[in-house]
Design a protein that fits this description.
34 strands; four-stranded antiparallel beta sheet
Length: about 500
């Protein structure tokens, strides 16, 4: 396990097999390779290593010499994935997993305009299993994550990440005015070049120069190759596995303390001003929902609503209401007061017969969807600060674990809303709703081919935010949406759904 792979050829004279080519890495913190294969024509080789990593080399001609160059390979999580979220711009996707990492995936726009999706950064490599994450819209490239510990950690994008994102996903410098303004503010505040993790530490420390990647003590005994491997990666294509392991970390800027048990879920409002968090709970005192101010990172008055673990939180699109659902089979809506504190508005007791796993607001905040282990999805009408059951979708074959509304109204000429639903067996389906009077009438528009779906529980579904850079069609007769999903089967999947107006 010396982190190298060799190609051997027999010597014509002695008949001995000699090492002709050696590929791999020097230093780093990977655990070497477990096996390898030649390509069909013998001009490429691929190796697989610990944690499901792939390494790919291709033979190239240079100055009459044959060399083996590293190529971009596929990558992803190697354990159950618990949460995903899109950056508010829709430019990239963040996922967190039980493999103790958070990973960022974005499109790679090549010179021939071919677009493929790749992992471009691994901002957090932790010592605990990751369970939840969300972006903070008011801060450019900033997210907060929770793991099997009692604190939340806030991370800010590094200068190396922003330059890499520009090269990989925005080759024409397609930044919006709001993004440019946020980036200028970050530059003025002293944006970190990257981050590193001290020995026996869990916090990513900001680094402002490459010299900071080796402290005074470590310079005495660390090899130069180790220091170089940890330096931030500035690339024009998706990073290699060796770079993702050490050179794409984001600096940690804040910790949030307050919960007494391991954290479980988090949500941020659409203006990025307030956070809502919850932890594992077996009593009402433990099941409190804590509200945080993202400017001061201080707590507001906590909400005591549920008696068991809160399973999901979501702010309404106007940021005036907070939706929560729980293992106690209830969901609740809380309202923001004039002083920006929140109080419980209504609690829907016995909303389902089993655990309520998921909930979501409609884009106009008039309806709520809830899904539960009882295999039902219920639609609730929210009006005049009251919640009433509007309709119930047909019973599913498995427990409902993820629901989400499409981000826009009037999906087609005949349908006002669209929702995506994920089940415990990995199945995903699209449902359309028509407004008949004051109620919604639902029908199943599509069930995804099982060969494309997950093979285990769907944990989260997210529609990609649409903006001027990721509009998928100019055809006014159809609408296209990208839907990201994550599952306990260790995969993140991206689907494109096309809806015709007729």
């Amino acid at each position: 396990m010396d982190k190298t792979m060799m190609i051997w050829e027999p010597d014509n004279i002695s008949g001995l097999w000699l090492n002709e080519v050696r590929v791999g890495e020097m230093g780093g913190n990977s655990l070497g390779f477990y096996g390898g294969l030649f390509g069909a024509k013998g001009q490429s080789i691929i190796a697989h290593g610990y944690n499901g990593t792939f390494h790919y080399w291709k033979q190239q001609q240079m100055d009459n010499n044959e060399i083996w160059e590293s190529q971009v390979a596929i990558s992803g999580h190697f354990d159950e994935i618990y949460d995903i979220c899109w950056h508010p711009s829709g430019d990239y996707l963040l996922s967190v997993s039980k493999d103790q990492t958070s990973r960022i995936f974005s499109p790679w726009i090549k010179e021939n305009k071919v677009v493929t999706w790749h992992e471009i950064a691994r901002p957090q490599i932790h010592g605990y299993d990751m369970v939840c994450a969300t972006f903070i819209p008011s801060k450019a490239h900033c997210f907060i994550s929770g793991a099997d510990e009692k604190i939340f950690r806030v991370f800010m994008g590094s200068k190396s990440f922003m330059q890499n994102l520009n090269k990989i996903a925005k080759p024409n410098n397609e930044f919006s005015q709001s993004e440019i303004k946020q980036l200028e503010q970050l530059e003025k505040s002293g944006l970190a070049l990257g981050a590193n993790v001290p020995a026996l530490g869990l916090s990513n420390k900001p680094v402002f120069s490459e010299k900071d990647y080796a402290g005074e003590e470590s310079l005495a005994f660390q090899e130069e190759v180790m220091i170089k491997a940890a330096a931030p990666a500035f690339v024009e294509q998706p990073p290699f596995e060796e770079q993702l392991l050490q050179a794409t970390l984001w600096p940690e800027i804040q910790k949030l303390y307050g919960h007494g048990n391991e954290v479980i879920c988090i949500a941020c409002d659409h203006h990025g001003k307030y956070l809502a968090t919850a932890c594992k709970a077996t009593t009402p005192d433990q099941a409190v929902i804590r509200i945080w101010d993202t400017e001061t990172w201080r707590q507001k008055t906590p909400l005591t609503i549920h008696s068991l673990t809160v399973t999901q939180l979501e702010f309404s699109h106007n940021d005036q209401y907070l939706l929560s659902c729980s293992r106690d089979r209830e969901f609740a809506v809380s309202k923001r007061n004039e002083d920006n504190s929140m109080n419980v508005l209504c609690i829907c007791k016995k909303a389902h017969q089993r655990i309520v796993w998921t909930c979501s607001w409609s884009p106009d905040d008039k309806f709520i969807l809830t899904g539960a282990r009882d295999k039902f999805v219920k639609c609730w009408k929210f009006n005049d600060d009251k919640v009433d059951c509007d309709s119930t979708l047909p019973t599913f074959d498995f427990a409902v674990t993820a629901v989400v509304w499409a981000p826009v109204n009037q999906i087609t000429n005949n349908h006002n809303y669209m929702a995506c639903i994920g089940l415990e067996n990995g199945q995903i389906s699209i449902w359309l709703a028509s407004l008949l009077g004051d109620s919604l009438s639902w029908y199943c528009a599509s069930v995804f081919n099982q060969s494309y779906c997950h093979v285990s529980t769907v944990r989260r579904l997210c529609f990609q935010p649409q903006n001027q850079h990721n509009q998928h069609t100019d055809n006014k007769k159809e609408k296209k949406f990208n839907i990201a999903s994550c599952s306990l089967d260790h995969s993140v999947r991206l689907f494109e759904v096309t809806m015709e107006s007729n």
